[in-house]
Structures are given as C-alpha cells and as structure tokens.
Design goal:
Elements: H1 4-14, H2 25-32, H3 36-49, E1 52-55, E2 58-61, H4 66-90, H5 93-108, H6 114-131, H7 135-149, H8 161-177, H9 181-205
Antiparallel strand pairs: 1-2
Helix pairs in contact: 1-3, 2-3, 4-6, 4-7, 4-8, 4-9, 5-6, 5-8, 8-9
Length: about 220
C-alpha cells in the first residue's frame, strides 16, 4: 500500500495536482482518507524535495518554468558525467549485464511511442547510475528525475531524436564497458547537453507547452 507521501508525490508528478494548486491539509486528508498528521508530514517532505513551495496562500504545487529545467540540466549534466566515469571504474559483471540488457531494450523499442522510449531510456540511465556504486549520487539523480517527471513532454517527441539518442547510448555503453572513464564522462555530459538544447527548441516552437502562469513546460 502506498504511503501518504507516495500518493501525494505521484499526483503531483502525474499532473493530477496542477502547478500552482493550493494544498489544503483538511481537503487532502479527506480525499486520501487519512488524518491531517500524515498529510502534514508528507507535505513537509515534498517541500524538502522541491515539489511543493510556499505561496501567498500557503503550500502549493511548484510551478513549472524554463529556468527550472535549465537549473536541473545544469546539475544533471555534471552528475551524469560523474556517474558514467564512476561506472566505468567500478562496474561489476552484474552491472555489465544490466547495462547491456537495457541497451538491448532501447534498440528493441525503436519505433515505439515517445512515452515508451522515455521510460526505457530512464531505465538505461538508472543502470549506469547504480553501476557507479555511489548511493549519494544515485539519490541525487533520482531526485532530479522526479522534477523532470512533472513536465509532460519528452525529447523523444522530436523527429529523429530516437535514432540519434540510440547512437549516443551505444557509444556511452561502449565507453563504460571498455572502462574508459574519461570518454564515458564526456559522452554522458554531451548526451545531456543535447537533451537540454532540444528542450529549449521545443519551448520556442510550441507555445502549447505553457502552463497556466505562462511559463514553458517540456
């Protein structure tokens, strides 16, 4: 059974609770069928996660903005490079099998809908994070991913991105499994930089990505 925190987080990430929505303890407690205490505790954790922020009327779901995405990628570019370098240095036989397995799934899903590709892509990157054998690094990357889940668009919606992304993933996996840490870090950082730039182009080309406050979502 999902905890109160997980239920609220999932509703924020899925968009059921829209950006800017005012979060009232009594209403949430009634909706979830729990007391106000677990609601209060969950909201405190969500505020620490950065998914909830304080507005003029109290706690609300954090707004989406281009600035936030750029901040996320600024950090993620560095962390993904660090994870890839560490994975190249520390991966085990089990890690190798996982990385190759997720790469094979990416190849098998070419032509699938963007949402399926995005989910498969996340699992490939997670296999690299875990191969770094750095729990703090994995935790930080997972937290960044939660923020990205709030944005309904994916770079796989851009024509040709699935093909170029697969090439980048193959190169990254090869560098890691060859234990070339420097190349792995460079390729991982490049991969994320390309993704960031594509999102910038998406904002410029598609005004429908604006949320109710007039800020771009991706």
């Amino acid at each position: 059974m999902e905890s109160t925190y997980d239920q609220l987080r999932n509703r924020i990430v899925s968009g059921d609770f829209a950006p800017g929505m005012h979060l009232v303890e009594t209403s949430l407690a009634e909706t979830l069928g729990v007391s106000r205490t677990p609601i209060r505790e969950a909201l405190s954790r969500l505020e620490q996660d950065g998914l909830v922020e304080r507005g003029s009327r109290g706690l609300q779901v954090r707004h989406r903005s281009p600035a936030e995405i750029l901040e996320i990628y600024e950090v993620r570019i560095v962390l993904e490079g660090t994870a890839a370098r560490a994975a190249a240095e520390r991966y085990t036989e089990v890690d190798r099998i996982r990385i190759q397995g997720h790469l094979a799934r990416l190849e098998a899903h070419q032509g699938a809908e963007p949402g399926v590709l995005a989910a498969t892509n996340r699992e490939f990157h997670r296999s690299i994070w875990h191969a770094s054998h750095n729990r703090t690094l994995v935790d930080m990357l997972e937290r960044l991913s939660i923020h990205l889940f709030r944005y309904p668009f994916t770079t796989y919606q851009v024509p040709g991105r699935a093909e170029t992304s697969l090439v980048e993933h193959r190169q990254l996996a090869e560098a890691i499994l060859s234990r070339d840490g420097e190349a792995a870090a460079r390729l991982a950082s490049h991969h994320m930089t390309v993704a960031r730039n594509i999102r910038l182009e998406m904002w410029e080309e598609d005004p429908s990505q604006l949320d109710e406050r007039g800020t771009a979502a991706v």
